[in-house]
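Appendix C reproduces, verbatim, an entry submitted by the partner laboratory led by Prof. M.T., so that reviewers can inspect both the input and the predicted structure.
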Amino acid sequence: MHLKIDTWLSAFGLDETLALHAAVVIRRISDEAREDLVNDPAFRLMDYDPTPGKMTHVPVAAPRARAAARSVLLKRTLRLRPAPFVQWVIAHELAHAHLRNAGRWPGEDPEHAADALAAQWGFPRP
C-alpha cells in the first residue's frame, strides 16, 4: 500500500517536504476517499511558489463525461508552517476534492464539510 501511494504521489512532482506531508495524510484518510482520488486519472495535486510577479502554470486534466476534473494546489510557503497545520490544510483540500467541492449532504456548507471530514480522518483544524 505504501509503495502504491508513494508511486502515485511521485507522479505529481511535489516539493519534497510537501510530498512527505501529503503521504502522511493520504495514508490516514478513509479507504473510500483514498481510492476515489488515487483511481481518478483526472485528479491533480501540485504546488507552486507564490513569488510576486512569478507566473505559475497549473496543469488540469480534461473533464470526463459527467465528472469535472479535480485539482489541489498547495503553496510552497506551507513548508514554513508547523506539521499539524500543513497536514490539516492538505487533508482539508483533499476533502474538498473527494466531496467535489460540495457538502456531505444537500445544503451543507462545503467549508464546514471539508473541515469535518479532515477532522474525521484525524486532522482537526489546529
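The radius of gyration is 14 Å. Additional entries are available on request from the coordinating office.
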